[in-house]
Design brief:
The protein is mostly helical. The protein has helices at about 1-25, 45-80. The protein is elongated.
Length: about 100
């Protein structure tokens, strides 16, 4: 019986030693990643810049729409002033 007891005791001690050894082999936690710090930019400056760009774009759109309307009017007047095309006299059949 003592032989069986010694075998069991060695197995338990071996298991404890293996557990301790394996727990010591853990990989260390990864080093924290350093993020590049962006320079702090005042967001209100960006917002103001974007608002200014929007105003400029809207103004340009209004100018282009105005020009388009003027061109449409010119085209309509040009169409009205065109002389109607009459067929040549040689193509008309005699009465």
């Amino acid at each position: 019986m003592s032989l069986l007891r010694g075998y069991s005791l060695r197995s338990v001690i071996g298991a404890v030693i293996c557990t301790i050894a394996l727990s010591a082999c853990k990989t260390p936690p990864p080093a924290p990643v350093e993020r590049k710090k962006e320079p702090t930019v005042d967001l209100s400056d960006k917002v103001q810049s974007l608002e200014r760009q929007l105003r400029e774009r809207d103004k340009r759109i209004e100018e282009l729409e105005s020009q388009l309307e003027a061109l449409k009017l010119i085209d309509q007047e040009h169409e009205k002033q065109r002389k109607p095309i009459r067929p040549p006299a040689t193509l008309e059949s005699p009465p």
